[in-house]
Amino acid sequence: MVRIEQVLPTDQHLRRLIQALDEDLLQRYDEENIYTIDLDHPDTLKTTFMVAYVDDTPAGCGAIRSLDADSVELKRFFVDSTYRRQGIAGKMLQALEQRAIEQGCQWIRLETGAEQFEATAFYERNGYYRIPVFADYKDDGISLCYEKKLDLDK
């Protein structure tokens, strides 16, 4: 059974999952092309973090942070390879999108890497479409940005 819980940035399950995400990204990209997060920075308290559990085992994580009054950015979205293709990512994405709607947001944006084919396919299947790079992301052919208009009637 999958359950999604909101957690603080100090949560050890979240930290282990983000470390696994960073290790996965380092296998695909040079370190200077990876956008990491400092979970000890005070600004992370403004970010909503969630962890997906299969039974009691942490299987994935994700976060949203405010970009402006109408939009959030999806961050640190990851499912451990052991638990992929079990619908966990979809459930976690729905939970994060619902939280964004509850915060009054109309848009959700994200950045992913050009080498993460499984991620781009997942986002496109879930209604996201490519947009120009935004925020501090570089237009370098590595960063791919996506956006989705949220259904506020949900």
Can you describe what's shown?
The protein has helices at residues 12-28, 88-102, 117-125, and strands spanning 2-7, 48-54, 57-68, 71-79, 107-113, 129-131, 143-149. It has one domain: Gcn5-related N-acetyltransferase (GNAT) (Aminopeptidase). The model has no long low-confidence stretch (mean pLDDT 91). It has a 7-stranded mixed β-sheet with strand order 1-2-3-4-5-7-6, sandwiched between helices. It is an alpha+beta fold and 154 residues long. The radius of gyration is 15 Å and the shape is globular. The chain has 3 helices and 7 strands, in the order βαβββαβαββ.
Write the layout of secondary structure elements.
Layout: E1 2-7, H1 12-28, E2 48-54, E3 57-68, E4 71-79, H2 88-102, E5 107-113, H3 117-125, E6 129-131, E7 143-149
Parallel strand pairs: 4-5
Antiparallel strand pairs: 1-2, 2-3, 3-4, 5-7, 6-7
- Summed over residues and divided by their number, the pLDDT gives a mean of 91
CATH architecture: 3-Layer(aba) Sandwich
Provide the domain count. 1
Structural class: alpha+beta
CATH superfamily: Gcn5-related N-acetyltransferase (GNAT)
Shape: globular
How many individual β-strands? 7
Order of helices and strands: EHEEEHEHEE
Amino- and carboxy-terminal Cα gap: 24 Å
Instruction: Report Rg.
Output: 15 Å
Low-pLDDT ranges: none
State the CATH topology.
Aminopeptidase
Largest sheet: 7 strands, mixed
CATH class wording: Alpha Beta
Helix content: 25-40%
How much of the sequence is in beta strands?
A: 25-35%
